[in-house]
Amino acid sequence: MTPRIADADAAIIAPAATPVERIRNFCIIAHIDHGKSTLADRMLQLTGVVDERAMRAQYLDRMDIERERGITVKSQAVRMPWGVTDESGRTEAYALNMIDTPGHVDFTYEVSRSLAACEGAILLVDAAQGIEAQTLANLYLAMENDLTIIPVLNKIDLPGADPDKYAAEIGSLVGVDPDDVLRVSGKTGVGVPELLDHVVRTIPAPTGDPDAPCRAMIFDSVYDTYRGVVTYVRVIDGRLSPRERIAMMSTLAQHDLLEIGVISPEPIPTQGLGIGEVGYLITGVKDVRQSKVGDTVTTARTGATEALSGYSDPKPMVFSGLFPIDGSDYPALRDALDKLKLNDAALNYEPETSTALGFGFRVGFLGLLHLEIIRERLEREFDLDLISTAPSVVYDLTMEDGTEIEVLNPSDFPEGKVREIREPVTRATILVPSEYIGTVMELCQSKRGNLRGMDYLSEDRVELRYTLPLAEIVFDFFDQLKSRTKGYASLDYDVEGQQAADLVKVDMLLQGEAVDAFSAIVHRDKAYNYGVEMAGKLKNLIPRQQFEVPIQAAIGSRIIARENIRAMRKDVLSKCYGGDISRKRKLLEKQKEGKKRMKNIGSVEVPQEAFIAALSSDDSAAKDGKKK
């Protein structure tokens, strides 16, 4: 692929010299697997910022976990030069700041921050699958930010592509003529040059006051072991120059600006950043709390007095406990979470203690995939071995005396009479082929959902709108939705308040003692099933003791399920070769008394492997467990 760039490459070598009217800031929004990263690869090649030898698939996906799963977890900003030839035949150099965003609902906060740093968005839709629920959600976010929307159909080279059908669908949503929907192939590069030309023509240049005190918005940060905190900013007003002293307006901390530059796609130091430009700052600071996403950067002298509006803090949807298997790793886990918090502003955590698991953290996530990614990053990047407890949501309780209590963890569930329990509910949007309407409705009803409405987007695609409890979504709803619709359904949801529900706390008792890690808050109708399932898991996972161990599931003082782990018994009759039966009975009675005494003073040790297997969402570990 031959790069088409301007003669002087001015956009990279001296970005400070690029006039503001020649800058275009845009992001790519799409559903998972609709080709965002592949399209970004073609743009990098076409603009010449990555040569053929260094090029690799998913170039902007820097983490191994992103490459392995084929998904984007972190937004990545990159600056590209692009030459556009005018009517007189003269080529003018433009600087394109492009942000590749994640597509999964759990990473919507990454998308919202990216949208705030742009003037336009490319709405990318797979020409073989059509628009998905998450794409709709991101489209509405972009419209709320008053961004210029460029609708694009990708993968037009696929045999199953139907561009005309889906162009009409997108046109009706965005309000454009179907013929105006651009058609590209991120794999072959067809239509990508025309798309970049269209970006230059339709997306407006950034606006700002060059003479005002400097104000730059922090939209992302990363931690570098050698250089400290690397802060990514979008300059709104004024100008930032190297060796200048800067101030963070929320923390009032001041630092010397050691290096300033652009990402193209590797860091390139420059002589400064002006209005509308996107780049990075390095101050050498090692304290990760000094660089807060959404903060405003200004100059220490003659700085701005009014901060930018920033971002609304993300609300955690799912809570799970993270505990190190080795208790001595607790300080390392705390430092690792501090560094990941810098890289992922949606992460929330606070210290927690468990009787069974020791010291750890109660961590708030935006969803189950977010939980899975964070745990895997902690284990890979920081070499930690962790146990995560079953995910739960926040419940609000009103006691009989009128006291209001917030419960983040089943172990915090209070003793005494509860007047009302309220759980978070969501407005869920499901897009599905029309032949699967019945099976999706059946699934939603089994998850305590209420149908709010249904619309046909086309003759074979339906939008279902449901009110669903968040607790039902965070466990296995998405997996079941995909399996029942052969992968064709897509889901998006927003928390919209609370509703009263008949919920109970189920405790798991070993030898009569409650194990807090296995407790759960579930709907009363599902409490029996949970108790039976967890008791069966633990029976397979906990090694046999010298005495019988009862495993019980209880709601308050009422036992709802029970399993027994049989005692290991020595064959005391092996030395009896015949003789009177009374001799055998005497030996058996003696053994029975010993077991009874042992049961009274014995305690059950639950191995770490049992905790990991019982608390994992996958049942296979428990089913394969064998008694020792």
UniProtKB/TrEMBL annotation:
It is an enzyme of class 3 (hydrolase). This is Elongation factor 4. InterPro entries: EF-4 (IPR006297), EFG_III/V (IPR035647), EFG_V-like (IPR000640), G_TR_CS (IPR031157), LepA_C_sf (IPR038363), LepA_CTD (IPR013842), LepA_IV (IPR035654), P-loop_NTPase (IPR027417). The keyword Thylakoid does not apply. Its EC number is 3.6.5.n1. Its main location: membrane. Keywords: Cell membrane, Elongation factor, GTP-binding, Hydrolase, Membrane, Nucleotide-binding, Protein biosynthesis. GO terms for molecular function: GTP binding; GTPase activity; ribosome binding; translation elongation factor activity.
